[in-house]
Amino acid sequence: MKVIVDEARCVGGGHCVVTAERVFDQHERDGTVVLLDSTPPEELHEAVHRAAMLCPAAAISVTA
Amino acid sequence: MTDLFTEPELLFQHNPEQPFQLPPGLARLRAERPLAPMRFPDGHEGWLATGYDEARTVLGHAAFSNRYELIHIPLPGFSGEMPPAPTGDFLGLDAPEHTRFRRLLAGKFTVRRMRVLTEQVERFTADRLAALAALPRPADLMAAYAQPIPALVICELLGVPATDREWFRQAVNGMLAREGTSADDIMTNWTALNDYLRDLVRAKRAEPTDDVLSELTTSDLTEDELTGVGVFLLGAGLHTTATVLGLSTLALLMNPGQLATLRENPAGAIEELLRYTGIGGATVRVARTDVEIGGELVKAGQTVAISPIAANRDPRRFGDGDALDLGRDASGHLSFAHGVHQCLGQHLARVELRIALPALFERFPSLALAVPVHEVPLRTTANMYELERLPLTWQD
């Protein structure tokens, strides 16, 4: 799995941090997403898909 | 069914005997045409989204604007035009104007920072539980518990000094429209709060303390904008959280079998209560260009009204959505909306609910409604539901 984030779209919803805190964080300055791990291990895939689904601004995408 | 849905007042109806029941007309419409053409009270021919997918698509779609002056209002009897958003109310702006405010504020409302507030929320909750316990019964949960907790949290965020908090709380209460409050009273309180916040902004700029408002004084926001943001945060964060806290208590008292799940998994339980109690009558957006959604063509200039309570119970998304089931996975509900305007304070609201709701039932295991359900004064005529009082009683 490869995770891609679009910081320009991000509105700091924070669901990604709540759902997969080993993969995502937030900038203190403006709340936008920080990608901690672009190729997370398999046990986190479900959480990442969930984070992408919950993201209010569709700023997270996932490729195989 | 006719092609044009002409009963927008259904969005604001509730059955006093069963306050959490979705009006059957909305459920029927959702099954038959989840995005349906609707005639608005001012005559505008727009749309009504009752289906989950349709509602979520509209809220997240870049073709839709939230500029107030472009929108037709589905409130019964409302035929006037909306003025543009007042200064600091970024909910009524689109990108890039909206983005400027959103980014500034999102940095102050990160998940990490909201978790830091946990201890303060626990302290406020303990204080209010003690105050509630000392009251004669029946006691009103709204005045003694549900309203003060979010008010104290907002004071903390804005850095309202302890000596001003009682005045502040009363001014905020006076701003809410309810029985016995005249339009003049509301306006007087609104002006007083506005003046108070303006003075607070000046004071924080001169002498910053450890709070969100002080931090924002170093941004490029003007004094007017910052004052407006303060007023906006009050409007967005007080009444909403208080109402959900009250309605969640009511929902649990009506479904006592679910209390064990609240204790075992408060985070999941709160998510389901947020889905189930949903307090918004209608959220609106207006199409800037023609856009096709779920096989329907929404034309440029048309307003779409979204019923979050209907979408939150869509069986295509949530199965038996009309049942309160604290064990279900309710994430993805639309009670905080979706898209770029999704509630900025949602994680703070979750912290408040997750602490205050279980603590209430733990402190008062025999908590009970002191009046029949149909006498609970739930007001649904405004665009946000309001629970005016929730009379409760308990055994020592």
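qc> The first strand of chain A starts at residue 2 and ends at 5.
qc> done
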